[in-house]
Amino acid sequence: MSSSSLVVLAVAGATLAVAAAVPRLRRPALLSVGTPLAALLGLVAALFAGFVSIYDVLAYAPVLVVGAATAAALATGEGRAFVRRVRSRLLFGVPWGTALVTAFVVAFYVYVQFGFRGLTSPLVVPFVSWSYYYPLGVLTAPFAHAGLGHLTGNVIGTLAFAPLAEYAFSHYPTGRGNSSFGSWRTNPYVRAFVLFPLGVLAVALLSGVFAWGATIGFSGVVYAFAGFALVRYPLATVVAVTARSVVSVLLETLQNPIVYANPSPSFGAPWWAGIAVQGHLFGFLLGALLAGALVARRGNRPSGARVWFGGLVLLTSLSLWAVWWYGVSTQYVLYRAVGVLLVAGVAALLAAVVRAGDRTLVSDLTTRRVAFSLLLLPILTMSLVAVPVNLTTVQDAGLPGDPVEIRDYRVTYAEDVTNERVGAVDVPYFEQVTNVSASGVVVANPDRNIWAERVSAGALAFWGDHAVTVGGLGWEETVWVHRRGWVPTGAHPVYNVYVEPENGDLRPVFASQSATADPVVAGRSVRVDAREGAFGLRVLRNGSVLSSVGIPAQNETVTAAGLTFVRNGSRVVVVNGDTRVTIAHEEQYQ
Q1: Residue 433's pLDDT is what?
Q2: For residue range 485-521, what is the model confidence (pLDDT) as tens digits?
Q3: Residue 149 belongs to what H/E stretch?
Q4: Phi/psi at 172 (nearest 5 deg)?
Q5: Average model confidence (pLDDT) for the chain?
Q6: Measured torsion, CA atoms of residues 280, 281, 284, 286, in degrees rounded to the nearest 10
Q7: Could you give the CA distance from residue 259 to residue 195 in angstroms, rounded to a whole number?
Q8: DSSP labels, 178-231
Q9: What whole-number distance in Å separates Cα of residue 445 and Cα of residue 326?
Q10: Partners of residue 328 on adjacent β-strands
Q11: What are the E-state strand segments in 457-493?
Q12: What 3-state DSSP class applies to 52?
């Protein structure tokens, strides 16, 4: 824990201790405002005393000021009335179920995914919902995360939307004549600490079972919270999605109060290519369906117009319009127009659901039943499609070359091999055919039905080195993958890829095609080869090999077919009389 965090905690603790000793200072309004301000003054004092830096003060100051101002707003006037309303529905005014669920998700990341060993590099592969034949992945995928940013985003989303859902659920019975302790169903402690978390668990498991293909993350549940909250409290949900952005900015400020940035090259797929649109839509509609049933039962329907406008703003902010699929090779296709129509359609459907009444259309068919049937239809459709998709198996899928074996995993590097997780799918009317191949670091485990491109060829070419972690419950092991190459002048790179397991030897697993440099010296050209983890030079005349030699070591010289090759730093120079030409240079990585 940093020194600034210790100062904040110490001052806050001292403030509460003084308040406990002095009865006049025990007023909640005074404590809620005074504690963060006292912590801020403590940080300033620690700055002058030399215990913390100005960087630490700048990191905490915005958070403490916003906290104090928020507490002040809640301590007077309408804020105080708001607090009373919250306490009338939540035990001691706290969303205990939300806190319990959030703690569980964070604990899963820290302990089960070994986040405590490195917050930015958790164990991911065994906790993905690869197939129904791998039940561990299906059951754990909703609670696992691919990285710290993934976890942080979902935690913030949970804290933004789940309290609204829990408030609508209520720890206290809402029906007339029901006593809080009349039965276990109306017991506020049972509802807060058992029933609400169990409901969240059920939604999480459904999102894992009916997700299409390999997914990971709590976002399906976050979207269910959002859908539930929107149907019951549309305006509050729009405020919550804005508050989520505020919390994200405050967290980033706490981590990096000052950021220096320079223009630099970058590599990565488009941001929308990582969105599990189907999983998000399934969770959102499931949450909306549950809230619709609650609203119909209690009879407190919100305005249809509010649900429509709130849904439009919320779903756009949550990027549910980012409908995408794989294109040719490493290409991704965004169907933005389709996504916007989807957002508008879902918002209109929810508005119709909340306003539908008991007016009979035909026989016993009411408008409410029609509306709920229309809402249930896409949920059932997605569930039915998920079954054959998740019954796929990769048990017969092999890996080229000589992969490294780590228990029941195999890790290697390959290019232009068939992606065993994504089949060939025609997308009609868009002249787009999906023909997905994989190029990069591939991890396979037939026993767990795992086949995944964990690092793309482009990413490895950009970074040069990358770690891949495999494992299971209670164990993990990291494999390093390295790319080293040479770029012949005027030609494509020539490279070797090596895999290095923990406590193992470096092993070459891939060699690229050779390439011939553009310069011609004394009627001879030079080709750069990669083979068995080493690099060589071949001197050619009219396509015939005259001689071959390895690339010289640093500051050394070799001769082949009358040409002299000199290694000068990261360059290889060919010398022939007075002619000196750079024939190749080493690949550069970020």
Answers
A1: 40
A2: 999 999 999 999 999 998 888 999 999 999 999 999 9
A3: helix 148-169
A4: -110, 150
A5: 86
A6: -120
A7: 44
A8: --TTSSTTT-HHHIIIIIHHHHHHHHHHHHHHSSSSS--SSHHHHHHHHHHHHH
A9: 23
A10: 435
A11: 465-472, 475-488
A12: coil
